[in-house]
Structure formats: C-alpha cells, structure tokens
Amino acid sequence: VTGALVTLAAAGAAVVGHDDGDVRLSRLLPAVRLGVPGRDVGSLSIPFWQSSSGPVLLVALVVALVVACVQVYTTWYLRDDDRYGVFAATVSLFSAAMLLVVTSGDLVLTLVGWEVMGWCSYLLIGHWSRRESARRAAQKSFLVTRTADVGFVLGIVVLAAGAGSTSYAAVIGTWALPDTCVDVAAGAAGCTTGRSGLLTLGLVLLLVGVLGKSAMVPFHDWLPDAMEGPTPASALIHAATMVAAGTFVLAQLFDVLASDGPARTVLGVVTAVTMVWSAVLAFGQSDLKRLLAYSTVSQVAIMLSALAVAPFAEGPTAATLHLYAHAFFKALLFLLIGWMGILAGGTSAAALRGVARRSAFLRVSFAIGLLSLAGVPFLVGGVSKEHVIGAAYAAAHAGDGTGAVVLSALLLTVVLTAAYATRAFVVVSAAPVGPAHADPGHPGHDRPPAAVVGVLVVLVAGTVLGGLVLFTDLLPSGPSTAWGLVGVTTMLIVIGGLLAAIGSVRGVVRPDRSPGRARVDPATRLVGSRMPLFDKGFGVDTAYRVLVARPVLAVARGVAHLDETVVDATARLCARAVAWSGRAGDRAHRAERPSTGLVWVALGAVVVGAVGVLGWR
Questions:
Q1: Whose CA is closest to 10, among 109, 112, 103, 111?
Q2: Which of 116, 251, 308, 341 is buried most deeply by CB count within 10 Å?
Q3: Residue 479 has pLDDT above 50, yes or no
Q4: What is the distance in angstroms between the CA of the first residue and the CA of the last residue of the chain?
C-alpha cells in the first residue's frame, strides 16, 4: 500500500510540475525522452526512450490512482487470505508493467510491459488456485492472450523494420502520412494508393494482439471467466490497466493507424460487433460480477471504435478520454460489487437481491456508477461517450462507411447498456431484502473501514466532478452539436431503462408460483429460461474447444505420433545398429586368446620400427 501511495504522489507531482503547457489528449508524442542508453542491433536502433508528455502523465496518474485504491481496498477484502502478501506483490508488479506501457516511447519497452502484464494477470486470476475453476480461468486467459500476442510481436517487427528503429517517433515519422494527405474524416483513403501493403500487414498484426488483450471478438470469452479471481484483481484488470492498455498503445500510434484505411476498417467492424454482442450478453447474466465483465468488453470496444473513426485532425482524444472515464466508474462498480458480495455471500443476482438497501452510501454510490456506465449526461462516462459518438457522427457524415457502422452500433449499445445497468440497480435495490448474512469467507468484516470508504468516495467524486469539469469542452464541433448529441443519447438511455423497468414491473405484477418470491429481476422476465445460454456466452467456450482446441490437439497428437514412429524410430534404429555392431566387435575381441592382441601390437611396433630404420637415410 505504501508503495502504491508513493507512486500516486509521484505521478501527481509530475502532472502538477509538468511545464510544457500541453496536456491535450489530441497527440501523445513524447515531449521529453528519458531512459537508459539505447542499443543498435545491426541496422535497427533501440533507443529505450520513455515519455513524460502531458497526456502520458495524465494516464499514469489515473493508473496510479486506481492501483492505490485497489491496494487499500485489498487490505480489507483479503485480510484473512493466507496469500495476501503474494497478491499485493503481484498487483505492484502488474501496475509497474502498466506504467511502463504508458510511459514507453519505445516499442521494445512497450512489449516488455505488455508481456509482464499478461503474466501477472494469469497470477491474479488464478490467485485462489485451490479452486479448479480459478485455475481453468487463469489458464484460459493466458492461452488466449498469448496466442494473440504472436500478432502483436510480429506487428512490432514489421513497423520497426520499416522505420529502422523501435522508437514511436521514428515509426510515426516513417509510416504516417503528412497532414495534407489525410482526409479529415475518413482517414487516408485517397493517399494510400500505391503504398506498400507492409503497413496494413503490420497494423493488422498489431491489432490482433490488441484485440486479444482487450477481449474483443473473437477473443472476448476469457474476460468474463476471469471473474474467478478476487474482486480487487477484477477491478484492476478491468478499470485502467490490462484491457485498456491496447487503447493507449494504438492512441500513441494514431497517426500511423489513421494513415491506413483497411486497418481502421478492421478495427471499426470488430469493435462494432463486440460492443453490441457483449452488451446483449451482459443483460442476461445470472451473476452481476460477470455482467460488469461483459460491460467492460463493451466499453473497451467503444474506446477502440473511437480510434477507428476519429478525424485525423482530432487525434485519439475521444478514445483516451473514455479510458479515463472508464477507469473511475468501472473501478467504483467492481469495488462496490465486492462489498455486496461480502454482505450477501455471493455475487449472483439471486444472492444480491436487495443487498444495497443495507447501506445508503452503498446504494447511492452504485447508482452513480451505473448512471455513468449508462452514459447519463454530466457524469464522466456520459461526457466521454459523447466524444466517441461525436467522432463517429463526424465520420459517418463525411461518408465513411466504417463511421456509419460504428455510429449505428454505438446508438444501439447505448440502449442495451442502459437496460442492463437498470437491471443491476433493480436487483440490488428494488428487490425484497432477504435475511442478512455475510460471506463465511470474510467473517466479521462486512463493514469496510474508513480507509476503504474514503477510496470509494474518491472514485465517486471522480465520476461526478470529472463529468462536470469536462462537459464545458464536450465536442470541438460546437455547443449545438454537443447538446444535440446529449439529447439523442439521453432519449436512448431512457428507452433502455424503460425496457428493463417494464420487465421488472411485469415481474412484480405476475409473480412466481413459488410462495413469497416475486420475480423482480428484469432478465428473469425478458430472458427467462435462456439465461444459462447467456451465462455460457451462447456457446463460445464450446466453439473454442470444437473449432480451435480439438483441431490443435489432433494436430499435436499427429505430430507426436509422427515424431515417435518416424523421427524417434530412426534415431532408435541407428542407436540399436551401433549397439549391435559394438556388441559384435566386443564378442569378436573376446573370442581371441588374451595374448593374441599383444602379439599383434608387438608385431606392429616391430614393423613400424623397421620401416623407420630402413627408410632413414
């Protein structure tokens, strides 16, 4: 905890003391380069630069704040855990890796932080390794993200080889098109004719790694299973670190991404599908912690979609702003759901029914987090979503097909997000309160200490005040557009909320036949018996096994059989031939009388001596 607080203080001091006067989010190029001396490997330069520009420091501050909140919360949540020290140390290493990714001005340093984060996420998800489900979830996350990281590494190789350096500045200077060549809304479609396909190849490979780590379709199924880890680990992974790291990496390379239309199209289509699909799955989850997990998938897709459609002149503003906003309200929601889980003995919707009524602070804080998640205006999540919708609207208005697809998906996602956020609030607050009981795994500490309450207050303040501060600079296109988008999204949020509320009201009017149990969960009414399908992600995990795991295992068995029957058999045959010949020679040698060998040696010596004497002149 002390280390996390010191890091937070250092990040805050760096932001306050930053003197280049540029803390805009539009460009993330390094303003100051720090680090150890670089190295030249052949024709490739590896400078090992780090950045301390304004936007980078702001992200570092947000990451440090979330990590500090999680560490303080963990001292209460896992105080009876015999492996608390291991968990806290892993969180510290995880946060250090994320800060390395954030401050990196070099692709090699980014890769180091990227891979350390993946390893730490495996440890955090599998922290309760005595449970088989936790071990499986950790292994699944590791395998999926490591497979995708193959693309990330190859993408770095392509971009760095073309630039002759791994520094972001060199890569951007080599691959990015000049401002005059890039269409303001649609990217570089008119200027990429005749350009090498290497840029598209490198970016698409890089996107594969980002999509895997960010849990985008088709890699999305590992993240909900990661809920098997402790709630502080979920808050850390889902808020401002791992799953959001890809957004920041692409934001740093935005000028390069904006120079390649095909790569942006791939990113836009994948994120559009992901945000809608995961929002649908979130509504039907029987466990509210998994509901928040699917909401993270949807929100990260919204971040990445902004990079796919944002006008070149605006840069990655919308994406990075939603990254900031998401860090506050998602960390708040996960820490609150952990508190509720302690109160109710679990995080399923059935267990959490009415649990928020036991604390006014808990109920109000959870409502604020859900409202920000839904994108209600004036909260930080609402402001950041308006930026993303504004960027998609600008692209669609300019005739960009990807922008139109993303805008349509965004507007539909707004409705779905409001629906599942309303459902979550109805479950924890409007349902009848069951008998009070605490989780037996957390005896005697269902009431958090003042430090934990202070952490939650900080996150609530960031969610509320952050939106009020940022609203005055909502969109660069002007106040009229901003207010128009606010009106449209507000209407869609109301529609989504009414959808869930109607399901709840109908459930109350038409109760279950079981005496004393009212059907108040909107998903019970609207999803019904299909809820297990939602819990299983409509068979995505099964598809993994059938389409990926089984063929890979079959190929592995075939290779193993070939290795055993051909390669190993050849080696064994040669070994046996040598052994047979050795034994035959040994038998032949032993078959003679012992003195025979000595006689031949003596005769040989005489012959050699005779030749030497007679041949000497």
A1: 103
A2: 308
A3: no
A4: 92
The verdict on whether omega for the bond into residue 262 sits within 30 degrees of 0, i.e. cis, is no
Distance CA 185, CA 313 (A): 8
Nearby residues of 91 by Cβ (< 8 Å), 6 or more positions away = 67, 70, 71, 74, 120, 124, 232, 233, 236
Spatial neighbors of 481 by CB under 8 A, at least 6 apart, are 390, 393, 475
DSSP 189: T
- The continuous run of DSSP H or E covering 34 comes out as strand 33-34
For residue 341, give the H/E element and its range: helix 317-344
Cβ-Cβ contacts under 8 Å for 31 (sequence gap 6 or more): 20, 22, 51, 52, 53, 54
The letter for the amino acid at 167 is S
For residue 275, give the nearest of 297, 293, 292 by alpha carbon: 297
What SS3 state is found at 39? Answer: strand
Task: Classify residue 176 by its DSSP letter.
Answer: S
Global pTM reads: 0.84
Phi, psi of 183 (to 5 degrees): -65, 135
Q: Residue 127 CB: number of other CB atoms within 10 A?
A: 23
Torsion angles phi and psi, residue 514, rounded to 5 = -65, 130
Residue 601, phi-psi category: left (phi > 0), alpha (psi -120 to 50), beta (remainder): alpha
Q: What pLDDT score was predicted for residue 326? A: 94
pLDDT band at 576; cut points 50, 70, 90: confident
Which pair of tokens denotes residue 104? 């990196």
* DSSP, residue by residue, 371-430: HHHHT-TTSHHHHHHHHHHHHHHHHHHTT-HHHHHHHHHHHHHHHHHHHHHHHHHIIIII
Q: How does DSSP classify residue 287?
A: B
SS3 label, residue 445: coil
User: Cα 599 to the chain's mean position, in Å?
Assistant: 80
Distance CA 390, CA 302 (A): 12
d(CA 460, CA 89): 27
Torsion of CA 271, 277, 278, 280, to 10 degrees: 150
Segment 453-459 mean pLDDT: 94
Strands 33-34 and 50-51: antiparallel
Angstrom distance (rounded) from CA 489 to CA 483? 10
Q: Which residues of 404-418 are buried (b: 16+ CB within 10 A; e: fewer)?
A: bbbbebbebbbbbbb
Q: How confident is the model at residue 112, as a pLDDT?
A: 95
- Summarize pLDDT for 244-267 with one digit per residue, the tens: 899 999 999 999 999 999 999 999
| Residue, of 239 and 299, whose pLDDT is higher | 299
Residues in the chain: 617
Helices (H), ranges, 176-228: 198-213, 222-225
CA atoms of 19 and 97, how far apart (whole Å)? 26
Least Cα distance to 137 among 239, 234, 246, 271 occurs for 234
* Residues whose CB falls within 8 Å of the CB of residue 89, separated by 6 or more in sequence, listed in order: none
In angstroms, the CA 493 to CA 495 distance is: 5
Token pair, residue 63, equals 């990451």
Amino acid at 396: A
User: How far is the CA of 505 from the CAs of 169, 282, 367, 380, 460, in angstroms?
Assistant: 57, 20, 19, 30, 29
Question: Residue 330 and residue 205: Cα distance in Å, rounded?
Answer: 29
Question: 3-state DSSP call for residue 44?
Answer: strand
